[in-house]
Amino acid sequence: MSEEETKVEAATEATEADNSATKEAAPKKKGKKWPIVVGVVVVVLIAAGAGFWVWHEQPSFCNAICHTPMDPYNATYDQEAGTTGIDKWGNEVANTNSMLCVSHKVSTDQGGAGATCMGCHVPTLSEQMSEGMNWVTGNYVYPLEERSDEDLTEARGLEGDQFCLNEGCHNLTRDDLIEATSDMEFNPHVAQHGEIACTDCHKAHRASVMYCTQCHSEAEVPEGWLTVAEEKKLQQA
Asked: Within 10 Å of residue 103's Cβ, how many Cβ atoms?
């Protein structure tokens, strides 16, 4: 074989070797994209999950996903604080601060709790599944029936008082409450006629009621609140 033929053969072998190396390297180069793809998918899922959880805390979630009967309740929550508004039945409320759903959503820097729906309504997984099934089958009343503090804490195995009196909300005892309202002529927190539940006076989606006026018509009534007689006249849808 001549020297020229030898060079041609060597060049051909080199070209074939380069092509083979390129083919072998190509899949490896392509394979390096998978960690990037997986990383992007993970980031998207985390962002979507975080966004969903934030929405889960808002009234719009309750209404959009399960609770069609939540419409009247959402309407009360969406109102401005310290104004004339409406309750869950459409009755006029002299001062929206008398409804806990409004007064508690006020931001902490403005003296409120900055609470959302899920700050008070803390359902268990079984409750959420049960409520979801009731919504699908239409097995619910409209609007939803009013619930006591015991109803709202039952699934979590708590006492009724713990709905309000806990470290995350009002870190107080019954005695602390008595002291806080000791300047009132008829102290509503003194259990002189037997202990009453917080929700007997404090209402979330309608004007709160001064329980003492059931017997003492002269008892002081906070701004926007109702007497027991006025409560009985409410138009309930």
From this structure: 21
